[in-house]
Design a protein that fits this description.
With about 475 residues, the protein is mainly beta. The chain has 4 domains: about 30-140, Sandwich (Immunoglobulin-like); about 145-255, Immunoglobulins (Immunoglobulin-like, Sandwich); about 260-395, Sandwich (Immunoglobulin-like), CATH 2.60.40; about 420-480, no CATH class. Helix content is about 10%, strand content about 40%. It has a 5-stranded antiparallel beta sheet with strand order 9-10-15-12-13, with no helix packed on it. Strands 11, 14, 16, 17 and 18 form a 5-stranded antiparallel beta sheet that branches. The protein has a 5-stranded antiparallel beta sheet with strand order 19-21-25-23-24, with no helix packed on it. A hairpin with a 5-residue loop joins strand 12 (about 185-190) and strand 13 (about 195). The radius of gyration is 43 Å and the shape is elongated.
């Protein structure tokens, strides 16, 4: 190094002198004379979460850089367009040295947060002059209720059915759920392939949306219902939760154990003539449904009547593919082709929680079906719409298999045709039922009212609010055809 300097002095004296003068002069330059200065930097002192904080500054010298640190549970947005303001990043708001900005600050941390912003001036070379930086602080209070709603579709679970939970929130990016521990209860997530979830821990591996829903399946093999708390926690950041503002639902987990079944099963009569309707009534506690089997000879024909259909029933089989309600009433038409009386055994089977029929707890009675003595029979049919009703009604003479049914289809408002006209002709015979007596072949309001009066007269329905009021449902058609 010394030899190089010696050569430079003797061989290139002018270059040496120039370099020497440059370094000598630089030592005495006052670099602080041109340093930028932050004259002022002020902000709104305190705000509630999601309110606007105004930051303004004045700088002598070059431009500026603004930086707001990242704090867990705090989110920043430009007030002008509500886009995200990048925390922890140096940002130049504008080309002006002195300027200001309005920020929306959201605090979902669950507690008060102090946000300290820093303004950094730029020197003459457009570089940040950190020694001249200045700070100001904003106190931001938390959201009082980050979760605005937490609900479930039931307060008591049903065996084999998932419970749905749904929620809404304010400014939250995510939430998670904890289930309290109960040694008798297990929970699975249908959305995760039936995966078992732990109790007293966040059950989802990643946060759920701030507003959304999920379903959970519960099992309780114990003999009594069990309580469980479902708690929704606001997420301050991914994987970090606010334990001060959760929402909880108290859920009763129904027992999956099969309790003793109690059955009430009775017909409106135990002896009928061929072609009559019989009404079967039942009420079963601690079962989820019921079905019926009829044991009979091939000479017996059975049909069930509902508000929408007439269904043929096979002897020796369950009458319906799917179980009926655990409490109900249904009409059955029983016809015999023999000239002698026949016995039909009627058995009801409770449908249990495990989706099986329990033959051990079935109930039966025998129904005697007598042959039709004449074509014209006086038939007394007690109509039992519900278990609490015991009204009886005497129907007019019924013709058994005299001719083809006149009314073979559903009729109601808007229907047209010859069968509508025949219906109007028949109803017009009774001035109390059809005083207008129109025979147009069109099923309008007056025809509907007339059919409704007919149904009320024979107690097919009990009130005009019944869903089949004024229409020819299967039972109404059956009665009308029997009177032709």
């Amino acid at each position: 190094m010394f030899s190089l300097l010696k050569k430079l002095i003797f061989r290139k004296p002018k270059i040496f002198i120039a370099i020497f003068l440059f370094f000598f002069t630089f030592q005495f330059i006052d670099t602080s004379a041109d340093a930028p200065t932050v004259v002022s930097f002020v902000s709104t002192e305190s705000i509630e979460s999601a309110q606007v904080a105004n930051l303004t500054w004045s700088i002598n010298g070059g431009g500026h850089t603004l930086m707001v640190p990242c704090i867990q549970g705090v989110k920043l947005f430009y007030d002008s367009n509500k886009t995200v303001f990048p925390c922890g990043t140096r940002v130049s708001v504008s080309k002006q040295a002195s300027d200001g900005i309005s920020l929306v600050i959201v605090n979902v941390s669950g507690s008060m947060r102090i946000i300290t912003a820093r303004i950094i001036p730029k020197d003459a070379y457009a570089k940040d002059y950190d020694l001249g930086a200045r700070e100001t602080s904003v106190t931001v209070y938390p959201v009082n209720q980050p979760i605005t709603g937490f609900f479930s579709n039931a307060t008591t679970t049903k065996s084999g059915t998932a419970t749905i939970f749904y929620w809404t929130s304010k400014h939250l990016d995510g939430v998670n759920i904890k289930i309290s521990c109960n040694e008798s209860v297990t929970a699975t997530l249908p959305t995760l392939g039936g995966k078992f979830v732990p109790c007293d821990k966040m059950i989802f591996p990643t946060d759920l949306p701030g507003t959304g829903l999920t379903s959970i399946m519960f099992a309780n093999p114990s003999s009594i219902d069990q309580p469980v708390d479902i708690t929704l926690f606001p997420a301050m950041a991914a994987g970090f939760y606010d334990g001060l503002h959760p929402n909880t639902i108290n859920l009763s987990i129904a027992s999956d154990a099969q309790k003793p079944v109690s059955i009430l099963f009775y017909p409106n009569k135990s002896k009928i003539s061929s072609g009559e309707l019989i009404y079967l009534n039942w009420s079963i506690t601690n079962a989820v449904g019921a079905n019926i089997k009829f044991t009979c000879s091939t000479n017996i024909k059975l049909q069930s009547f509902t508000a929408t259909a007439i269904t043929d029933i096979l002897c020796g089989e369950y009458a319906w593919v799917n179980p009926l309600s655990a409490s109900s009433t249904i009409a059955i038409n029983v016809s015999g082709q023999n000239q002698e009386s026949e016995i039909v055994s009627v058995t009801i089977f409770p449908y249990l929680k495990d989706k099986t029929y329990d033959a051990r707890q079935s109930r039966s009675f025998n129904l005697q079906v007598d042959p039709a003595k004449t074509l014209i029979l006086q038939t007394e049919i007690p109509i039992v719409p519900t278990l609490s009703t015991s009204t009886t009604v005497v129907l007019p003479p019924v013709t058994i298999n005299a001719k083809k049914d006149v009314f073979a289809r559903w009729l109601g408002p808007g229907s047209k045709g010859e069968d509508v006209k025949l219906l109007q002709i028949f109803l017009a015979k009774d001035k109390k039922i059809y005083p207008e007596g129109y025979k147009t072949g069109y099923y309008g309001k007056t025809t509907k009212s007339a059919v409704g009066r007919y149904q009320l007269k024979y107690k097919i329905i009990l009130t005009a609010k019944d869903s089949i009021y004024g229409t020819l449902d299967p039972i109404t058609r059956y009665l009308l055809n029997s009177q032709q």
